[in-house]
Design brief:
With 489 residues, this protein is of the alpha/beta class. It contains 17 helices and ten strands. Strands 1-8-7-6-5-4 form a six-stranded parallel beta sheet. It has a two-stranded parallel sheet with strand order 2-3. Strands 9-10 form a two-stranded antiparallel sheet.
Amino acid sequence: MSSSNSNPSIRDERLSDERLVELQESVRSNWKTGAAVDFEDAIAFHESLPEHKRFARVLESASSPLLQPRAGVPTLEKQIDLLRSLHEDGGAELLPTTIDSYTRDNEYEKAQTGLEETRSTGTNELNGFPAVNHGVEGCRELIDDVDAPIEVRHGTPDARLLASITFAGGFQSFEGGPISYNIPYTSGYTLEETIEHWQFVDRLAGAYTERGVTINREPFGPLTGTLVPPSIAITVMLVEGLLAATQGVRSITLGYGQLGNLVQDVAALRALRSLGEEYLPDDVTVTTVFHEWMGGFPPDESRAYGVITLGGATAAIAEPDKVITKSPQEFKGVPTCEANVAGIRATRQMMEMVHEQSLVLDGVDDEQGLIERSTHALMDAILDLGDGDVARGTVRAFDTGALDVPFPSSECAAGDVLPARDDDGRVRLLKFGDLAIDADSKEVHDARLDERAQTEGRDPSFRLVADDVDAITDGRLIGRPEGGEGDAN
């Protein structure tokens, strides 16, 4: 880690109205389109939207999991066409606008150049929609012309201007958070900095909510997307949910990324909902989102459909409120619209078939208990380190290694924890670092990994980790050695 921060200055305190206005004026000056942001005008635009475009209302009233892909292209016209196709042809009830990489890095000049080159050449020169460059007017045209609720999905450590423009532009859901958009994505910010930036985003969302325009907030559940143990992911979701609630957010969607073992994923999604309702304030509506597999995909599209439909089966049993679907072209990079539509349809087909069956999975309750026990231990450590203040405790927890994430990009996390699959394919911890989970949970992790090592006739070493990271790409769940016991021939 880059530095020690034993006494962080950040606090989990609501920004005053005066401070919010002061920061908003400063943020608006970061790019020319910020000048069009006007809170009262934005409230009027939101109030003009029909009920079926109000994101939180649609999500929170759903009787079965809603489907939402990822998708973003540079120009407004093509983004409108893309979202219409995903909604009308794919049947996605909730829609995304995925933001380009330059905007995520606050490089609006480069995003503008890419947008202009795209318009000139007809070839996409950006990997997403540059919402800041399109400005309030462009965002409103998108909201008006697409007949379903739309969420901003991005990856931005400092999303203050992006939030200001997209909220004013009519978007009512915004993904990300100070940990989930720091630790996996960047080495350029401290946790104190990103917590401070996201306090503004959440307070702005809270200000809209207080005026009757509910802004849904969705922390990014998969984190690094590489075998993240459920208790670590859920702890980050709870922290980001608590930080958002302090700022007045009242609709929070907690996320979780698929690991591939059906029992563990169902248990984790049930634990996520239960713990969210336990830790977040009573006046917050808690929903959950399940991200289909975020790791490496098979290069063969036929095999990729197998990965996608396993996610659909998991969602049908666990019943999260929303599912983020994947396409059979994940291995190649940005999928075509047709591939995205195919991924949505494949997920729905599997969900509908499994939903009609009465299935009972052995071991879900025990696995959920293990996840909840470990999460409680991590949350207790954060609150103890912060003397009850979750913001200060989070900074200290990452600084000491009491909270950690495998394979982080950020130097704010130690990266001393290592995951590996057990003999059932459930993700356990091979190396704990200084992670503050309880001794009983550690014993379970150790015992399960020892069982796998005995099955395969090898030591529980880093080789397990490396093999498991590549396993699904290679057509397996568990990274078994060639010809080893348990290998399917």
